[in-house]
Structure formats: C-alpha cells, structure tokens
Amino acid sequence: MYPPGPLFQRGEDRCQQNIDDGSAQAMRACNDLGYAAAVLLRKNYNVKLRDYQTEFCSEADMFRELEEYQPDMVMISVTNTTIFDDIKISNRIKEKTNAVMVLKGAIFYDPEQAMLDLLDLSKVDYLIGGEVDFAIDLIADYEFHNKGNIEDVDNILYKDADGNIKRTPFHVWGQDLDGQPFPARQLMNNALYTRPDTDEPMATIQTSRGCPSNCIFCLSPEISGKKVRFRSPQNVMDEMTECYEKFGIRNFFFKADTFTINAQWVKELCTLIINSPLHNKIAFTANSRVRPLAKETLVLMKEAGCFTIAFGFESGSDDTLTKVHKGATVAENIQACAWSKEAGLTVWGFFVIGFPWETKEHIMETKKLIFQMKPDFIEITLALPFYGTPLYNMCKEDNLLAQSVLGSDFFHSSMKGTKYLSMEELLKLRRNILLQYYLRPSYIFKKMGECITHPKIFLNYCKYGIKLVVNLFK
Known about the structure:
Blueprint: H1 31-42, H2 59-69, E1 73-77, H3 83-97, E2 100-104, H4 113-116, E3 126-128, H5 136-145, E4 156-159, E5 165-167, E6 202-206, E7 208-209, H6 220-224, E8 229-230, H7 233-247, E9 251-255, H8 263-274, E10 283-288, H9 295-304, E11 306-314, H10 318-323, H11 330-342, E12 346-353, H12 360-373, E13 377-382, H13 390-397, H14 423-438, H15 441-450, H16 455-472
Parallel strand pairs: 1-2, 2-3, 6-9, 9-10, 10-11, 11-12, 12-13
Antiparallel strand pairs: 3-4, 4-5, 7-8
Helix pairs in contact: 2-3, 7-8, 8-9, 14-16
C-alpha cells in the first residue's frame, strides 16, 4: 500500500517528488506496488493493492479495509519525507492485525546506523532497500512456507530471534529484467495516474534500471547500480501492448534514469513501435541526459509517438555542473533543448539550486539559462542531501544541515542554506524565477495558442498555474 497522507511519488526511489507542492507534476503509477503484487501473484499468494494517498482515503478507510481483508503481511512504500508518519501508521497496523510488517523505500538502502536509531522500528519486521520485485516474494516464502534462508535475500534488513536488526548484502542487483512479470495493473486503479495536460490514463513502464553517472545528489547509482540493466525492446513492447489491449491505456511514461543513453536500444524500440499496430495510437514521454544525445534519436522518438522529453539540466553554471559531477556543460544543455524543439518535442527542464558552494551569481546563471532555452515547463527544486550521497557528507562537513534530512523534501530542505545564502534567500530566488518565467505574457499567450482547440488542456494549464502561485505564496 501507499498509506493515507500527502501526495508523493513513492514509487520513484531516487526522486520522491512532493506532488502537492510541485508546480506541474502529476502522480505516476504505483509500479513498485504493482511489481511486488505481480511476483507474489506468480507464486499464488492472494494480494490486495491499495494506493490510499492518491485516492485521498482516510486512515479510517484503510483500517476498515484491513479489518475486512485480515492480511498476514502488509508492505508499505515509504519516503524520506513521510517516514515518521509512515512508521506510526505501520505500528498501528501491527497492533491491530499482528501482520508481518514490511517497509520498502530508498531510505533503507544500506542505511547508516545513526539514521536507523532515529526511527521507531520496534514493530517492523523487514526493511527493503533494494528493488522490491527481487525481495518481497522471497520474504513471503520464508515467513509463510519456511522456504529459503532470509540471509540470502539481498538488499534488506531483518530482525533476528533476539530482535536485533541484521542486514544482508547490498549492492547486488537482479539481472534478468525480462524474466520479471509486468506490474499487476489489474489490481491498480489506473484512472488515478494521468497525463497532466489531457487527464488521460498514463502507465509507467520501467525500461531499464541503473545509472552510470556520478551526480553527488542522486541515489540512483547507489540503489540501482552504476551499470545500466536494460529490458529488451520487445519485452517493453509487449508490456505496452498489454496496457493498450487489456487496460485501454494509450499514454506512457518510460521510466529510466536516462532513456536515451543507448541510441541503438532506443532505435530498436522506436522501430518496433513504428512497425506495430500501436503506431499513431499511443504517445509517450521519457527522461534523458543531455549527453550522450543525438538529434537523430530525438527525431525517431518523435516519429514513434514521443510528445515530451524531460532533462535534468540542473544548473546554468558550469562551475556547479562540474562540482556536482553532472558530466555535462551549459553548452550541452542549450544544444539538447534546441535539438528537442527542432524535433517537435515539448521540453521539461528540471533545475536545482542551493548547493553548498552556490552564491547568488550561480543562481542568476541558472535563471539566465532558463530564459535563454525557454523550456515549455520547468521545475526548480532545492538541493536535498539524502543519506548515502556525497552531498550529504559535504553538507555535514560544512555544518549546513539545519535538521535531520528525514522529513525533508525538495521544497522543504533540511539545509540551512548555502555557505553564502540563507534558506530564506534561496526560497525567494526560487519563487521569483518561477513567477517571472511562468507569468510572462509571451509564455501565457503561447500556451493559450497551443491549446485553443483543446479546452480540457487549457483548463489544466490554468489549474496548474493557480496551484503554482498558491504554493509559492504559502
């Protein structure tokens, strides 16, 4: 389950975005729950899947269903931000049901003991820090059929007979992604997860796992490994076909840390789509890095049905890009955005401000880049030092942590600020850039023109615009 509470991208282990406080983010499908359910169903377990947060259910609704279902095991997907509330809910479930309690989340990937000591784990039985579909069924087999050894389940923490927390080997990843079942969408409420502009159902399809980059703020290489593990293009195509034929879903988010990292793989997938009955019937969006990237890849993606591409541009300062180990330059940011627009793609730009060394000049360089590239949509987040990242160690050494990083998110950072800017100054700079960008008359009239024949899209743009202004002045 996703428990009742604020909207968070709980299934996005490396980037659990706060949807309520973001500018134009929509909730993505609960694939982590879907994968967990699928591997359990494959072994003939009876499974109930519930996304209480996205359905805006109350705790009373949750406990009523738990009373009816009487589960033997409950798995909760947690976030760094909501962890304290998630554990309170978990503890109450344990008291009422005596179910085996499993918490799954990036926060538990090979965690330091000092962080675990901050949490009340007295009523929790297992913590999954790695990829859930390679662990949850093995935990169930061990618990309910006395099958296997719990020490052999990688990337988890468990309690021994004396109640002591033990950990199994981390930094071990399953290789056969094609062998994993597709997420159990028959158990999901697929109508909850939609394209932000059209409100049509959108499925998330994870095309690969792992990232070879070294960005100092990102958990992905830690959680999923630095070697990219690809699914075969045909396997991805099969999942798209199932979504279209069985669930009537024609919009897709291709989840990958960098979808375009292997141009040949992208070409094979796009060629399959173009030569399939789905061509011109489906649409998709994907994330990319600005390097490696070829314009020909973007053109082919557009032909296959891509309508939006998102880049983590991060900064308009080459100094910052170098220090965060982004492996890209401002010039490459500009080129990637230009190529995408030339290919006819809408561009989403993600930026981060507030790294320890940043001055106002660094952030003004980012502002300058934003207004120069003119992405269709932008989001600016605050640097967030997750446990386990080099950024966390850097902030700790520089005494820039105002509080525990637990309970923080990209809009409510645990940092005091940078060495040169207070958190209040950073928030003001973020607010001013977003307002100046989105409230430009040229931007507003351009977006109105794009959706003049699509009233639904126009209304959604208005909704997100109002949300943005309200959030910035909370």
